[in-house]
Amino acid sequence: MLNNIEITEIKELLSSPKKITIISHRNPDGDAMGSSLGLLHFLKQLNHEVVYISPNEYPDFLAWLPETNKVVIFEREYDKALPILQNSDIIFTLDFNALHRTGDAMQKTLDTLTNLMIMIDHHQLPDDYAKYTFSDVTYGSTCQMVYDFINTLGYNDLINTEIASCLYTGIVTDSGSFRFPKTTSETHICVADLIEKGANNSQIHSALFDNSSYARLQLLGKALQNLKVFPELNASYITLSQEELDSFDYKKGDTEGIVNYGLSIEGILVTAIFIENKEEGIIKISFRSQGGFDVNEFARNHFQGGGHINAAGGKSFSSLEETAKQFITILAKEN
Ligand code: 5GP
Ligand code: MN
After folding, report:
1. CA of 210 to the centre of ligand 1 (A)
2. Which residues touch 179 (CB under 8 Å, ≥6 apart)?
3. Residues with C-beta less than 6 Å from any ligand 1 atom
4. Are 130 and 117 in contact (CB under 8 A)?
5. 45-81 tens-digit pLDDT
6. Residue 230 sits in the same domain as residue 201
7. ipTM score over 0.95, yes or no
């Protein structure tokens, strides 16, 4: 947690109406959006003027979160986003540890700003750009950090249904529905309070996970057919080419969670999904591991990425086949 002096200073900052902007990482997930919108609804309760700017579009399965219709998309609405950022008294940066995580376009703008920033994030090795840095890798989600942040400021009473629903969402998605190792008794105590304050847990799970199109399930079928297993390396991977994505009418968010199937096979400790993105000219990669295999380090060392010990991402500029081959070659070498 932030120290007492920092908390006092932030409380003082928030004691009169301010222009506040909240930003999260590119390709926002449940935790990025849940924490950002949760914090937005909280700050509105304190009478601030608050805008959430996402670098790019958010997936459909998060569209039900309260006030997603007011989210400003930086890469599509640059002319609107720029003055909002420039005129902010405070910019909260949520669920990322370095400004480049907002993507090339937004980073360029952020690099020119001198506004006061506050970071709330649970990724390793935070950069030092914020005046106040609440960074803690022991948390399973930024949403749980925002919950503790609100409580530490002494505003637990202000948590309403909207805030609770947003924060619950990121806790569920980043914890794999409460099963990943960073899920603690504190997580469950937090979630109990959020349910008490109006988060409809059952409905939220349904909104998040029971919203597939038929095409998305067919795409999942294709992904599972493409799954390759390397028992001697305790490894597996899935590939999805642009052509395959197109043939199943791919929409943002459709590949969310598919990577985890590679880890559900007995004996597999590390897995990846390689997804071709012709428009960006990259292979987007997600890594997952169990136990001591550190995919954050692996992604940093080999695939221009990062993340957490057991969940990370990266990218490659080689072909899909080449990238998958590299993954296996590196694992074989490091084994
Ligand atoms: P996912 O695989 O679900 O997209 O991401 C897993 C974790 O790795 C998340 O915490 C995410 O923020 C992080 N991550 C994903 N892609 C990248 C990347 O390209 N670079 C870095 N530094 N982190 C990433
Ligand atoms: Mn997160």
Report:
1. 24
2. none
3. 25, 29, 101, 286, 305-308, 311-315
4. yes
5. 999 999 999 999 999 999 999 999 999 999 999 999 9
6. no
7. yes
- The CATH number that applies at residue 186 is 3.90.1640.10
Same domain flag for 143 and 259? no
Same domain for 197 and 224, yes or no, is no
> Whole-angstrom distance between the N-terminal and C-terminal Cα of the chain?
37
The predicted pLDDT at position 335 comes to 81
Do 204 and 272 lie in a common domain? no
189 CA to centre of ligand 2 in angstroms: 19
> Cα separation of 155 and 47, whole Å?
13
Nearest ligand atom owner, CA of 34: 2
Domain that holds residue 167: 4-209
Q: Which of 209, 226, 258 is the last residue of a domain?
A: 209
Is pLDDT at 325 greater than 90 in this prediction? yes
> What pTM did the predictor assign?
0.95
- The rounded Å distance from CA 144 to ligand 2 centre is 10
Domain match, 13 and 39 both: yes
Q: Which atom of ligand 1 is nearest to the CA of 256?
A: 3
Residue range 208-241, pLDDT digits in tens? 999 999 999 999 999 999 999 999 999 999 999 9
Would you say 211 and 68 are in contact if contact means Cβ atoms under 8 Å apart?
no
Residue 313: what pLDDT?
A: 97
pLDDT at 127: 98
Nearest alpha carbon, ligand 1 atom 15: 313
Which of 209, 242, 258 is the endpoint of a domain? 209
96 CA from centroid of ligand 1 (Å): 9
Q: Which atom of ligand 1 is nearest to the CA of 314?
A: 19
Is pLDDT at 144 greater than 90 in this prediction? Answer: yes
* 107, burial (CB in 10 Å: exposed 0-12, middle 13-18, buried 19+): middle
* CB contact at 8 A, 299 and 307: yes
| 182, 241: one domain | no
Smallest CA separation from ligand 1 atom 17, residue: 313
